[in-house]
Each structure stands twice: as structure tokens, then as C-alpha cells.
Amino acid sequence: MEELQDLIFNAWARVEQKIAQDPTELDRRLALRKRPVFRRPIRPWCLAIRASDRRITQYFGWHENWQGWEGRQDIDVTAKLLRQLAMPLQTDRPYSTEKEMAHKLGRSRAAMWSIAKRGVFQRRSIHLLGGVKSHVPVIYSKHLLDPCAKKLAFPHWAWATQHAWLCERVPPHFEQTLQRIPRYIEFVPHPLTGPRRRPRDPFSRNWTQDGDYIPDNWELKRDQINARVRERYWENRQELLDLGTLKTRPLRTFCGWLWICPRCEKVAAKLYLPLFAVKAFRLLGDRDPVIGSETGMPTFEERFLCSRCHHLQYVRNRNSVTWNLLVMHASGGLLRGSEVPRPSWFPRATSARTKRRIVRREELLRRLLLGQSIVTIAREIDEPEQTLRRDLRLHIYPAAGVKTRRALLRACNVPPPPNPTRAKVLSLMAQGLRTRQIAHRLDVTFHAVTAHQRALYRQASAHSRRDLLRFHNLPPLPYLTPAEHTGGAMRSRR
Ligand SMILES: [Zn+2]
Question: What percent of the chain has pLDDT over 90?
């Protein structure tokens, strides 16, 4: 953040000269502070609290199952509770079990599964981990996790100013009583059929490459038992329905909580508490208008409200508007984004075209390492061969610091792909054919055959055909006089 500070102060030094020449300039700039974009709090500077956070229930030592309960629950939110809820978390290295992280993040296992699907974690399962007779899902992420954010992701650190430790900035004597109500979903039960569907997991040994699941013996047994239990349940249920003692009606299932906003009384999944209305360097020093006045720094309401009541501004890192917003808030509305040069560390917008290129190059590299040829790759991913060759020449090779495909494979510790022509050359050499005869037989040029032979000799560190054949465990050639050799081979060709 020192860099942002330098940039702001350097830009301010230039603007100050302008202000000294024109006295109305400062008033014009201060008038920008009346705009809503400056007065609305920004999401990265807010503490959020999720209504369905299971850690709240754990904190008060309540039971987790509230099925059937109706009414409002009062929650005394204190600074201690808030600090616990906003504390950033991290997975262990090399992994944490999903169950343990779900407990720490206050989320259900199903929620963890859907978060992992969005690419927040690397997720896999380990068979029999910790003696559990099943596949135990484990997750890993190298980033700090924000338990209250949608994808558990913190905003860009330029916004953050150590946002990761917002929990330490909780007002020490904060106290507010919030209300939440249980949330129910309704559904009509229907009989389940067949065995349990297993989640697709590329690391599991039970999944074949063709996408088929091969269950273990104990899983098959379990499936049979489950099928019998289900069958019995639905038979009993049908009996009761026939007798008229049971009516099919939608089941109401408890699925978390919703806050009631203290101001607008509407329900919301999350409530927010802004910690700073604006986080600015004091460029004007003591000349700054009084905080809370019309052109002074704005203040915020120090209590949890919904995003609509706080008029929260959500920011995305990846557009130029955000740089403008960051500069505006960091300079107290006195500078514009265009007046401060944008540093290289600030994320730039990535167009859809650039993203497509990145994806194409990643796919090309992946397939190259699998040993596919450029022609095959071009046909399979439906891209022009020329484009792929240019990607290789201008991006992939320079990035790896190599100049050829062979060097790239060597750099990635991948064995070179088998060459079918080279194998044919070797087998014809073993039959005693000369270079020109091999070229004729394979319908390739003489120089192509010599190139293959050079490569074969180099691979085997051989200096003669006899050594080469011995290296490949092929029978040695019988000794023939030059006349016999040529004549015999040529005759055989005819
Ligand atoms: Zn509200």
C-alpha cells in the first residue's frame, strides 16, 4: 500500500499547484463529496454476518435442528462473537477434511460441495482416511478464506488495507440485538430409485477414464441393504395411504435462517456493518471540513442493516471504474482516477477475447504434454494449425525458456511421444536394408531417414548399426560381403 500512498501524494502535489492558481478549484473538488458514489459505504470495508452461520448456533450452545420451530429468535451480537465470525481462515497443508472446514466456516457439507464446484478449493477424496470406511473428501486452497463472503474470497488487497484482519477493527464495545427467523422449503417426497449416485471424482480409483463407477464390494452390499430399507418404507407408506390414515402433503424442511433488518423489517440472508465510510489519506490536513458536514467526510450508521438500507456499493476488481473509485476514496474525493497513474499491480480488465486465448493456450499445452501432435490438436479443438504454431512460438516456448517441442517436454519431465515412422525405420534397419532402400520402402526422403537414424543412434548412444540393434535387443545382422549385401537386398525388393 505504500505505493498507492506515494502515487496519491505525488498526484496531489501536482493538483495543489493548480489549486493555488485557481481558488475555485478546491471548492469544485470538495463538491464531489456530495455525490452518492462517495457517501455510500463499500462492501470490502464492511463486516458481514450470515443468518445461517452455524457458528452462531454453536456459540450459544444451541441445538442445530430447529425443524418445525416457528417464531423469532433474538441474537445478542457482541464484539466477541463478531471477532470470531469475521476471523479469516485457511486450510491446512496439504489438505483439510471437508467436514472439519465446514465446521470452521459454519456451513453445511452441501454448501461446501457447491463452493468447491465454483473453483474455490481443490477437492478430492481419499479412501479410508483416518480409518473411515469410505471416501473422505479433502479440500485445499492456498488463499485466506473469508467465512462471510460469497465465494469465501477477500477483495483485492488494494481495497483491503489489511482487510483480512477487519475482525480486529470491530468496535470493542459493540452490541446489537438482531432477530432471525427460520427458513423452510417445501417439497413433495418421491420414491428414490436405484443406488446412491456417487460424485464424480477424478482422483478416486473407483472411477474409470470412461466415466463409469465401479463400486467396491462393501458398497454393493450397502446398496442392497439400502434398497431393501427403501422398499419396506414405501410399502408401509402405501399401506397407510390405502387405509386413508396418511395423506401425501408437501414436507416442510428447515434450511437455515434469515435476518430481519432492524430498519426496513425485510428479511435478508446477510447484514452488514460498515467499518469505514471512507478510508482516505488526509490530504488537506487541518483545512478539511468538519466530518459529517455537507462537504466533509461522510459518516456511517454503526449498526447491522441490510445492504439496501446501507446503500452498499459492491466493487469488482477488474475494471477501470474501480480504480477511479479507489482513488476517490483514498484521496477523500479530491483526486480522480485519471490523475493518478494506474500501477501495474492493479488488476486490469480481461476481455472475453483474451480469456479465450488464455484457455486455448492452456489446452494446447495440456495436449502437447499428453503427446498429441499439432495437427491432431488443431483438428480436435477446432482451431487453425497456424494459430496454434504461433501460440507455441510466441507464448508457450518463451514462457518455458525453450525453443523446441522436445526441449519443452524435457523441461516438463515428460518422455517424448513415440514416433511411428522411427519405429518402422528401426525395424527395416534390423532387416538389413540400406538407407536409400528404407526411404524407398517408406516413401519418404533420404534425408528424413538419415534424420531418424541419427536420432536413433543418439538415443541409444550407439556408433554402429550393430550397437544400435544390441541396444534394442534385436538379432544382429549376418556378415555379408558388399556385393552380396547390395545384390541380395535389391533382389528382394524386386
Ligand atoms: Zn433494511
Answer: 33
Highest mean pLDDT, choosing among 14-18, 174-178, 188-192, 419-423: 174-178
Distance 304 CA to ligand 1 centre (A): 9
Using the mean position of ligand 1's atoms as its centre, give its distance from the Cα of residue 267 in Å.
8
The alpha carbon of 487 and the centre of ligand 1 are apart by a number of angstroms equal to 99
SS3 assignment, position 270: strand
Strands 46-50 and 270-274: antiparallel
Three-state DSSP class for residue 256: strand
Å from CA of 115 to ligand 1 middle: 27
| Residues 254, 68 contacting (CB under 8 angstroms) | yes
Distance CA 461, CA 342 (A): 56
**Interhelix angle for 420-430 vs 446-460, to 10°?**
80
CA atoms of 347 and 157, how far apart (whole Å): 11
pLDDT in tens, 226-284: 889 888 988 888 888 888 777 666 778 898 999 999 999 999 999 999 988 777 888 88
pLDDT value at position 164? Answer: 61
* 345 Cα: distance to centroid of ligand 1 (angstroms): 36
Q: If you average pLDDT over every residue of the chain, what do you get?
A: 86
C-alpha cell read off for 268: 435478508
Distance 31 CA to ligand 1 centre (A): 28
Instruction: Output the CA 313–ligand 1 centroid distance in Å.
Output: 15
Q: How far is the CA of 307 from the centre of ligand 1 (A)?
A: 7
d(CA 373, ligand 1 centre) in Å:
59
d(CA 486, CA 480): 9
Per-residue 3-state assignment (H helix, E strand, C coil) for 89-122: ECCCCCCEEHHHHHHHHCCCHHHHHHHHHCCCCE
Which three three-digit cell numbers place residue 394?
510466441
Task: Compute the distance from residue 35 Cα to the ligand 1 centre, in Å.
Answer: 22
Residue 126: phi and psi, rounded to 5, are -115, 130
Contacts 24+ apart (CB under 8 A), 222-229: 223/195, 223/196, 226/195, 226/196, 227/195
Q: How far is the CA of 73 from the centre of ligand 1 (A)?
A: 18
